[in-house]
Structure formats: C-alpha cells, structure tokens
Amino acid sequence: MTAEAAQVRPDVIYRRLVDGGMVYDSRTRRVHRLNQVAALIWEACEAGLSARDATSRLRAEYEVSAAQAEGDVADAIEQLRREGLLVEGER
Amino acid sequence: MTLSLPRLALPDGVAGALQAVPAAAWPDLVHRARWEGLAGLLYATARREGVDLPGQVASEMAAEHVDLCAANLASLGGLQEILAAAGSAGLEPLVLPGASLLDLYPDVGCRPMDDVDLLVRDPDLDGVADLLRGLGYAPAPGHPRVFCRSGSTVDVHTDLVNGARLSSRRLAAWMDVAEVWQRRRAWDLGGGQRAWSMGREDELLYTCAHALRHSYRRLAWFCDVARLAALPLDWTLVGAGAERYNLSRPLAYAGRYLESEAGVALPAGASAAGQSSTGALEERLLGRLFRERGACELGEVLWAFSCRGWVARSRFLSEFLFPRPRVLRQVFPRVPGALVPLVYLLRLGQVCRRGGAALVGLVKG
C-alpha cells in the first residue's frame, strides 16, 4: 500500500447513488457499479486525497481496523486502476 | 395505510408515511410506483429514510434501481459523446428535460428516461443529424428526427411544443426558442463535459406543457414540476413566460393537481403565476383527466382551451384529430405509403371509438 494519489480519469462520469456509486467509462461505453466502500474511495480520489487519507475517511465512516481499511482501499484502487478508471497521480 | 405516491414529489414529503407502510402493502405500492415511473424514487427515498423494506421487495427494488441507474448513466454517457462532438463542430444543442432534471433527485436512478431530448436551432438540424449518424446513430423508421444506437434514443427537436408534428399547436401555446436560448443555463454533466439546458423557469413551463401533452400519464412528471417549483425560481419570470407563451393553463393545471389531488403544496409564487380561469366544460374534462390519469387521453383536447377564439380552437382540434399524412403514418406505421387515404379511415374509426368512450364518461361523470 502506497500513499501516492490515484486520480480519477477526467473523462469518466461518476454519480453517487443511495446504495454506493456508478461510473460510466466513455472509452468502453461501460457502466461500473461501486459498492458504498468503493464509492467512498472513489470520491476520496476525486477530491485528490491520498490513499492514506482515503483510509482515514473510510475508518471515520465505518468501524473497521486500520489494517482492514488499508486493505480495502488498496484493493479498490487496484481494481479501479485495472479497469482503467483511475490513473497514477503525481503526488 | 396507503401512501400517496405524489407525495414523493417533494424531498421531505414522505419521511413519516414511508415508515408507516405495513410490509403487506409494499408489493402493491411498488406496483403502482412502477406504473407511474416512480419506482426508483420510491426505492431511493425509502433507503435514504432508513425504511426497513420487506426482503423480497427490497431485493427486487434494488435490482430495478441499479438497472435504471445504469440505463440513465449510459444515456448521460451517450450525451457526453454527442455534446463533445457537437462542441467540436461548433454546434451547441440544449439538453431538454428529463436528462436535465436528473440532478433534482436523490440519485440518477430516480426518474426513468425513455430517450434524450435535444433542442437545436433550425439551421443546425442537418449538422446535428449528420453528427449523430457519424456517432453510429440511425434514424428511426418513420421518425426522421429520432435517432437510435444500441438501445439509446436521441430525439432532436427544433421547437418546444412539438409544433413540427402538430403545427396548429402554436395556436394554443408556444415557446420562443431564441428567448429560451438566451436564458439557458450551463451545468456539469461530468467527465469534463459542460451541458446547456433551459433555465429552470423555462423548464418548469416546458414540463407542465409536456405533461399535459401526454395526458399526465405518469406521476413522474408531476414530481418534476414539484421539484422544479421547490427551487428558488424567479416567479415573476415564470408568470411572464406563462403569459407570453400562453402556458398559464398547463401551469395552473399542474399546480392544481399537485395541490388538490396530491396534497403537495407549491410555493406561494407558483399559484400566483399559474392563475387561469376555467369554464364548466374545461373543469369537467380536467376533473376526468385527473381521475382517470393513465387511462384517459384528454390532454390534447384540453389544449384547445388555451386557443384564443373558436376559429383557433376548431383549427387546433381538427388538426389534432386528423393531422398531416406524415404524422398519421407514424400513428399507423404498418399502412403502406400507397394507401395513405386508408390512414384517415383508420383515424376516423379511432376517433369515433375514443370519442364515444369519452362522451359516455363525461355523461356518466
């Protein structure tokens, strides 16, 4: 788990839902559904927060251990990167 | 206990009522909400209020809501592509309701969208049509301004009261496209794409007119009206627009339904802007339309009361009953081109059948 920022690709459309979030990728014309945790992490990335800050935000919202939160953030960022929805940040 | 679905119209309209719905009443409530185009809003509101939905209902509603979110987001994605291409070509269409109204709701899955409606200036029509074809959209058979691509539909308009289809509708009401353009507002579609839409005051008038044109078939349109009216609108502008475009009646009808039938109070300025005196026949028809919403198509007939004078009214009604062959062939698409007179016979039969039923209903009512 690294502390560098992961940035959302600027051309994707994100909407928060009552049950999480959803992302539309204009390159693939695909819709990706995010659960509540993934949506929280996405919004942290969108706000330019680092992975560490995203972890803090997750812990503030849910009662999870630091290790669990770190793991969730790292997994979500990795998956979103694999889908091409997040790109490397410069921080 | 039953829940008045129109109360979903306002953000805080149903907090307590939803909690009080017994588990056994939910399936019927959801069924009615689906019919009214409000299933997504019902689900989102229930979730936001922390309502404990019965298991089966909860899973069905959640799945439907996700599907609607995905469909609407894909439509917005298609819109993003169109607006980007239009911008590069120096074209700037206005996004009409409903895509432009999605942000009034708790999330993107609260309001169904059959298509994306765009308003373009007359000289830009061919350019926008070419652009859509270039993006893989194809005109729908018999509907040259409706473009489809893998489940997405884009409807291109050059006027705001569907005057291209029914030219004498302009005798009842109109909206000046150039003026509407001047009052347009920008909004962020997401993905770095800016979109333009009508100003909120114009959206309110347009939505009232649109809902009447479709005989208030879905409660979702009343929800749009209520949510627009809950914004800090310039009611002087709404009143002036209603007066200028002869839209006082559609505005008054919608306000009346929301206030009296649905128990949703509009802001004080709304009723003042929509003041309109109605005659006995108009009252009777309106009452029937409200009572039999969804099964009654009196909306177009009610437009006749907005026409000034009997000559205009007669012209409007005669074109509504027997429109141009091009329009009528859209109503009866299976009739071959060589048999155009046949569509008028079919229309006559349709009018007699529906008119007879309406007359019987009025006499009984």
Observed structural traits:
heterodimer; A: 91 residues; alpha+beta; Arc Repressor Mutant, subunit A; 3-stranded antiparallel β-sheet; two-stranded antiparallel sheet; 3 helices; B: 365 residues; alpha/beta; 7-stranded mixed β-sheet; 16 helices; 7 strands
Structural notes for this entry:
Chain A is an alpha+beta fold. Chain A has helices spanning 36-46, 51-61, 66-82; strands spanning 6-8, 13-17, 20-25, 30-34, 86-88. In chain A, a hairpin with a 2-residue loop joins strand 2 (13-17) and strand 3 (20-25). Chain B is an alpha/beta fold and 365 residues long. Chain B is 52% helix and 9% strand. A seven-stranded mixed sheet of chain B has the order 3-4-5-2-1-7-6. The mean pLDDT of chain B is 88. Chains A and B meet through strand 2 and strand 3 of A and helix 3 and helix 4 of B.
Report the portion of residues of chain B in β strands: 5-15%
CATH architecture term of chain A: Orthogonal Bundle
Oligomer: heterodimer
Low-confidence stretches of chain B: none
In this structure, how is the largest beta sheet of chain B organized? 7 strands, mixed
